[in-house]
Design brief:
- By secondary structure, the chain is an all-alpha fold.
- The chain has a domain of about 110 residues.
- The chain is built from nine helices and no strands.
- The longest helix has about 40 residues.
- The protein is elongated.
- About 15% of the residues are buried.
Length: about 190
């Protein structure tokens, strides 16, 4: 009987170690996603300054021919001129990108829920995947309506594609936790 009890204890220890490893991976990938959202949000505030720095960098002799040959420099200069003109004459329009930035930060905060309790908040990971998928048609169709070059729209689409990668890994690990019968203390207390 003692040997049987020992093997049960060993199995529980192994299961607990596996759960902890899955939780750690989930939290690492959610942290990557949260940091990405924060960076996307924070960088939406100083757009004019950032574009000015980018234009200056693209005009450097070491990259100038590449920047002109790929039409990157003319496009970035065009966007920079439009943004400077808009900010000088209609600064209130930048309030829209301020709200865009704020939205990214709020969504980043909301992902703390799955970070704390991934099984209970798995629905929010699904929400994030749906949002990432939604980036693609928005970038393709709205970008066309707004005159954004196709290559640039593909770059915008990549945010949805690359954003979904950590969330897909998180979703997989949450499913593994569920298959192991994992549930948090807060979940077990409420049932």
């Amino acid at each position: 009987m003692e040997g049987f009890r020992g093997s049960t204890t060993t199995a529980k220890l192994v299961a607990t170690a596996m759960e902890e490893q899955l939780l750690k991976r989930i939290r690492v990938w959610l942290t990557v996603f949260i940091v990405g959202l924060i960076l996307s949000g924070v960088t939406a505030f100083p757009l004019e300054t950032e574009l000015g720095v980018l234009v200056a960098a693209l005009r450097q002799p070491s990259v100038l021919s590449m920047a002109q040959g790929t039409h990157l420099l003319p496009w970035v200069e065009h966007v920079y001129a439009a943004l400077r003109t808009t900010n000088a004459n209609y600064p209130f329009l930048a309030y829209g990108t301020d709200w865009l930035a704020f939205g990214h930060l709020v969504i980043a905060v909301a992902f703390i829920g799955p970070w704390i309790d991934p099984v209970r908040n798995k629905w929010f990971v699904t929400f994030g995947l749906i949002a990432c998928a939604g980036v693609i048609p928005l970038a393709i169709f709205a970008g066309a309506v707004r005159g954004i070059p196709f290559g640039w729209r593909l770059i915008d689409c990549s945010f949805g594609v690359f954003g979904s990668i950590p969330l897909l890994l998180v979703q997989r690990d949450i499913q593994s936790l569920e298959a192991m019968g994992y549930f948090t203390t807060s979940t077990s207390a409420s049932t």
